[in-house]
Every structure is written in structure tokens, then in C-alpha cells.
Amino acid sequence: MEAPSTILFFSLLLVGVLLMVYTASLYPLNQSENLSDNRIQAKTSSDRHVDHSNEIPQHPLDPLTFQEIKKTKTILSSYPKFSTFPSINSITLYEPEKSIVWNWHKGDPLPSRQATVIAYLNGKSHVLIVDLGSSQVVSDVVNSGSGYPVLTAKDLEIVVTAPFTDSRFNKSITDRGVSLSDVACGPLASGWYGPNEESRRVMKVECYSREGTANFYMRPIEGLVVTVDIDKNEVVEIRDTGRGIPIAKSSNTDYRYSEQKNKKKESTIPVNPISMEQPKGPSFKVDGHMVKWANWEFHLKPDPRAGVVISVAKVRDSESGILRNVMYKGFPSELFVPYMDPSEAWYFKTYLDAGEYGMGLTAFSLVPLNDCPRNAYYMDGVFGLFDGTPFVQSNMICVFERSAGELGWRHSEFSFSGMEDIREARAKVTLVVRMAASVGNYDYIIDWEFQTDGLIHIKVGLTGMLMVKGTVHQDMNDVSDSESMSMSGPLVSENLIGVVHDHFITFHLDMDIDSSNNSFVKMNLVKQETSPGESPRKSYLKTKRHVAKSEKDAQIKLKLYDPSEFHVVNPNKKSRIGNPSGYKIVPGGTAASLLDLQDPPQMRAAFTNNQIWVTPYNRSEEWAGGLFAYQGKGDDTLAVWSERDRTIENRDIVLWYTLGFHHIPCQEDYPIMPTVSSSFQLKPVNFFESNPILGVAPIVEEDLPICSAVASA
Ligand SMILES: *[C@@H]1O[C@H](CO)[C@@H](O)[C@H](O)[C@H]1NC(C)=O
Ligand SMILES: *[C@@H]1O[C@H](CO)[C@@H](O)[C@H](O)[C@H]1NC(C)=O
Ligand SMILES: *[C@@H]1O[C@H](CO)[C@@H](O)[C@H](O)[C@H]1NC(C)=O
Ligand SMILES: *[C@@H]1O[C@H](CO)[C@@H](O)[C@H](O)[C@H]1NC(C)=O
Ligand SMILES: *[C@@H]1O[C@H](CO)[C@@H](O)[C@H](O)[C@H]1NC(C)=O
Q1: Which terminus, N or C, of the chain has the lesser number of Cβ atoms within 10 Å?
Q2: For residue 180, what are the CA distances in angstroms to 207, 427, 593?
Q3: How is residue 556 annotated by DSSP?
């Protein structure tokens, strides 16, 4: 190929991955660059470099170290069942049994270290367990169901270069007046749409013109879709349905500050720089992967597929001071992003971002001071590359304390009949764990925010670029009603439709409230009517408590006019006055999938058929869309497991919650979307004996640094 560097990848995944191999520490910050003066953001948080080469694990859940990944590769290199070295899709810790982890204490010897490897060779996907102590492969199971592992950087490279070997593709590009040197191609998961696409790994490629802009997503070469056989490295099919559709303009699409700073916009009133100060330093400690802050302790682990995993989360009892178990493991298990356009070039765009691309693999370095405040601590991910060598995903998670001007609690009382005036207010400070994945065009910001009152707030922010569709239309005034009806979304700029789509993020929440055996309780609010003459009231609400017995009893669709609270309780641990200790899941703004249950993408994403599910704990049921989600048919989803209808009362149970968004794009989403966010909470219910933050002291002037700025001074 004449100039492979002209071919960009959607997320520059390969480039990002390759650059970070071993080289991260070789490029010190150029001190003479005045970042504050020119405001061009550093591409990486290059002022922080950690040497991972000699790290040793300190906790049973610590991710595999650099050396452990290398050792795993060495063991696999001499594994007799592999004729040649396979493609490595992931190398992660094979976690010890849950009871071992809960009972482990700092200072105890670590349980034996094992790696789970997902490897692909000659059309077969292997799940291997490699024991690092005995240097043995102790288990090797070949996937007998549908689907393939998460794509590797190598797979993506093959896919985006293959179309250029086909002269029909080149001709189609040049026929549209686009120079081949300006083409950027993206590897798109093909989904699964029946037998024609089975028994081989295929991917779709769609391309863009990057002439005149870094934001090539806004310049689609519409309707040209190439299907590539990943293993054979060859073009299977070229579909070209959009020849009459012009390529949208490049002007005003580049969002980079280097492009924006010279465009003086008189209407933009600047906001002065703002920052939070901690004169006495941060109150949290990170010891290896253990995070300790205020009354919380938890283990924090970067993961190539989930992005961030929070484990063994414990909160200190406000009365006894004892650390109490809350959650064994919480992480985003799968995402589902269906686009609402059934046409040839769009129907397959129904992504499972975690199982197809990997949320951690696409979580590039956070931008200091902007992605995370100055007081943030950064953590790297150490993952395995397709050839089994380790690489560092630097600064992929940040941890920081935040005082967002919110209140912990307050009350004031007006003095009357001799009572004292009361003015009591307590500021809220929280601890945030953040990660941002750039899965191609879209960015997902995932926050786990811990509060001192025991609440965990889980937030998902969506930003980045819309996936837009080229159109002949330029102006809605010239679009007839019938033409408008056939558009799959609003016109967001000349020649661009913002296609309507959904985002669903399903969280695995293995709650272990005060020990592993818990129950799931629905607290249904029901309208009661009074009998004639009983009360001046005609109606009121009453709670009806129902303990779910089996999985089907805990398949929940949220309903505004039939409301419930959903509690995970420990029936064996009662409060002073006899209430079971618990946490409730508090949904926020959310959305449900409305696709037909038999629609192939919905079958694969059947984990979104309900907003809440509860399953008995099973260490092999972690990925809601199946372990092998790529081209999977949906035979290993949360919905399939839940159909077994296993007992869940007073058992070790896992709660699953899906946060959803419908997105009807608008002009403000062009050329890059302002962040849209939604969230849910895990909130204590009768877990503490009373308000756990009663004793918090108010802040006084002397506690704070002297800042001279005054509003409207
Ligand atoms: C450091 O930055 C300055 C200013 O941008 C530049 O002139 C110089 O060449 C850079 N030095 C290195 C070693 O990159
Ligand atoms: C860096 O920025 C500061 C503040 O704007 C300025 O005073 C200083 O001269 C700059 N330094 C260089 C080397 O450009
Ligand atoms: C298609 O174009 C690319 C880029 O110019 C070139 O490297 C490649 O050889 C061309 N393919 C064919 C089949 O002509
Ligand atoms: C655990 O999960 C796996 C995968 O779904 C399943 O094959 C197995 O039967 C489950 N075990 C139990 C006890 O439910
Ligand atoms: C949890 O429940 C299971 C099933 O009822 C029981 O076998 C087990 O002993 C219980 N564990 C604890 C720690 O109570």
C-alpha cells in the first residue's frame, strides 16, 4: 500500500495502543511549553509516568501486572495445543473465589495468581485459565455457542486497510470526487443478522473524507459499505447505495482549540478559570488499587472490557466504626447502541460497545485540569496486546474529591416563643472515580461518586460526535412532508441527518449488604380508596412489600403510574428497631428499548428487555450480552440466564440495572455534542441506625484558603 498512514482508524485505536507500548515514559513533558498561555491541551497527562515493569500485586483482586502478563504469554507460547501463537483478545486476572477475597486481610499471603486468557486461533475462541504459580494452562474451553471475542487492534487494522485492495472501492471513492489520500475509514461491528453472516468473522467498513477537518465524522461518504472477512483479510462485499449524496462541508466542523481559538466570537462571554483548593491536601489515599476516603474503602481496577471495576466496597458504620460490606463488584457490563434506520447502509449499526470494542481499550488518557480537576489522582491500566505483550493505557482513570456547592443537609428555624434562631447547613463533599471511553465517534464518561452518607451515585455522560448520515437535503424549508417522514432523524447541518438512536448501559451490581446472602424486595406504592364516611380523604398511598422468590419475580419494567422502590436487603441483619439492613436502587431519568423482541439486535441485547434484573451470583455470568458478544446471536445474555428462574431469596444475588437514553439529535449536537448525562443511585435504607452524617462539622472561614475574588467585584 502506497501510504498506509493516510488511513485513519475511528478511534485511532491501533495507533494509540502501539504508541503506548513501552514508550510512555520516554517522552518527558517539554517544560518550555507554556500550556496555560497557549491553552493547547496536552495530548496525554505526560507529566505523570509510572514505571509498571516491576510492580507486584498487593491485593487478591489487583489486575495482572506487567510481568504477570509477560509470564502468561511465555506459558502460552509453549502450550502444546496451539500450533502457532494465537491472537490474544484479552489477558485479565482470573479472580479468586469470592469468599477468599472477602476473608482476605492485608498482610495475608495472596491467593494463587491466575490469568484468564481469551485467545482466537483457526476460527476457534478459547477461554484459558493459566496458573502463574505452576506455569500451567489449567483449563481450556472452546466456545461452543455463537459469537466471537472483543476485537483486537490487529483485527481493526486489517479491516480498515482491506477495502483499499479492491479497485471497485477505490473507483467508488474517486468517482465521488474524493481523493484516496483524504479517506479515513472506520471499522464497524456488523451485528448478527442471520445465517449468511455466521461461521466467519466479518466487519463493515464505512469511510469519510478528512479533507479540511480533523472531524471526519461530519463528512461521511454515504452509502458505501464494505464487508470484510477479518480472518481472510479480504473484501466480501461492497454495497454502494449513496452515489448521488454529496459529502457535507468541512468548514466549522473542527472542534479542536487550535482551530477555534482564532475565531473570535463576540457573543461568547468568557467564564474566569475556576478551581477547587484543598489547603490541607486530599483526604483520600490510594494504596496500590485500594482507595480509602472518609468512611469508604474499595478496590479500583481498570479493565479492558468494562473500563472501571469497583470491588469490595465497604462503608464504616457511623456508630460502631466497623467497616461493613456493601458491594462485592460493580461495573458497566454491556452497552447497546441501536440506530433507528433500517436502510442498507445503516441497519447493522446496533453496537455492543463493551463486548465488541472494549470500554477500557478505548479509554485513552484523561486530559488533566479538564477531564479531571487539579486535585485528581490518575491510575493506569495495564492490558495485553493482540500478541500477548503488555501495554499501558496511561491515565485512564482519575479519582478526586469534589465540593460541587451541594448540601449534605440543612435546616433553619425562625426564632419564636423564646426559641433560639437555628441556621445549620453542611456542605457536601464527594469522591469521584472517573473514566472516559472514546468508542469511535462517541465518548462515554462514567463516574462512580461516593458520598459520606453512604450513597453511591453512578453517572453516565455522553459526548463526542454524532453518527451522521449524508443526505441531499440542505434546508428543511425545501423538504416536503413526505421527504421529511422518510428521514431517519433531524437535519443537523447542510447535507447531514443526525440519525435517531438509543444508548443503554447495563451495570452489574453484585451487592453483598453486610454479607453475601441478600434478598430483593419490591416496595410497591398502591392507591387505597377510603370507604364512604371513613375519612375526608378519598384516596391515599400504601406500601406493599414483596420479597422476590425467583429470578422472574425480579424482572422489572419501570412504571410511572405503578411505582415501587427496589431494595436489596440482608434479611439476617436487622437494625436496632428490627428493619433489615439494605440499599435501594434509585433510577433517575432513563429510557427503555422499544424494539421488537424478535428483532435480531434486540435478541442480542435482550438484557435491555427489563430495567432491573436479579440473578443468583454465578462467577461466569458477568457480561450481560454474553462473553462472546461479537456477532453473537443472543444465546448467552442476561435474559437467557434469568429465564432459568433460579431462587434468589436469601441468597448471594447480583442486581442488574440498565440506564437508557433516547437521542433525537439537534443542531447543537453538531459538530460535537455538549455532554448529556443521566444517573442512578445506590442509597442506604435502614442500613445505618440514623443519619450517618449528623456529626459532620460545618466549614468556617479559617478552614479555607484566602481567595480575593468576589462575584461582580
Ligand atoms: C519544546 O517546545 C518549544 C516550544 O513549543 C519548542 O520550540 C522546542 O522545540 C520543544 N523541544 C522539544 C525537545 O520538543
Ligand atoms: C507563560 O504564561 C505566563 C502567564 O500568561 C506568562 O507570564 C509567561 O511569560 C509565559 N511564559 C512563556 C515562556 O511563554
Ligand atoms: C487503492 O488506493 C490506494 C491508495 O491510493 C492504493 O494504495 C491501492 O493500491 C489502490 N488499490 C487498487 C486495487 O488499485
Ligand atoms: C453459571 O453460569 C453458567 C453460564 O451461564 C451456566 O452454564 C451454569 O449452569 C450456571 N450455574 C448455575 C449453578 O446456575
Ligand atoms: C446463604 O444461603 C445459602 C442458601 O440458602 C446457604 O446454603 C448458605 O449457608 C447461606 N450462607 C450464609 C453465610 O448464611
Answers
A1: C
A2: 11, 58, 39
A3: B
- CA 507/CA 656 separation, integer angstroms: 6
Model confidence over 342-354: pLDDT tens digits?
A: 999 999 999 999 9
Q: Which of these is catalytic: 208, 351, 378, 442?
A: 442
Write the residue with the smallest CA distance to atom 12 of ligand 4.
Answer: 618
| Cβ proximity of 396 and 24 under 8 Å | no
Q: Kindly report the average pLDDT of the chain as a whole number.
A: 92
Answer positive or negative: Cα dihedral of 529, 531, 532, 533.
negative
Contact of 680 with 588, CB cutoff 8 Å = yes
Q: Which three cell numbers stand for residue 362?
A: 478505548
Q: Which of 209, 164, 214 is nearest to 182 (CA)?
A: 209
Question: Which grid cell is 357?
Answer: 470494542
Look up residue 198 and give its three cell numbers.
455466521
Active site residue 561: no
Classify 206 as helix, strand or coil.
strand
533-582, pLDDT tens digit by residue?
A: 999 999 999 999 999 999 999 999 999 999 999 999 999 999 999 999 99
pLDDT tens, 586-621? Answer: 999 999 999 999 999 999 999 999 999 999 999 999
Task: State pTM to two decimals.
Answer: 0.91
Residue (of 380, 385, 389) closest to 89 by Cα position: 385
Please, which residues bridge with residue 144 across strands? none
User: Are residues 508 and 305 in contact, defined by beta-carbon separation less than 8 angstroms?
Assistant: no
C-alpha cell at 134: 505452576
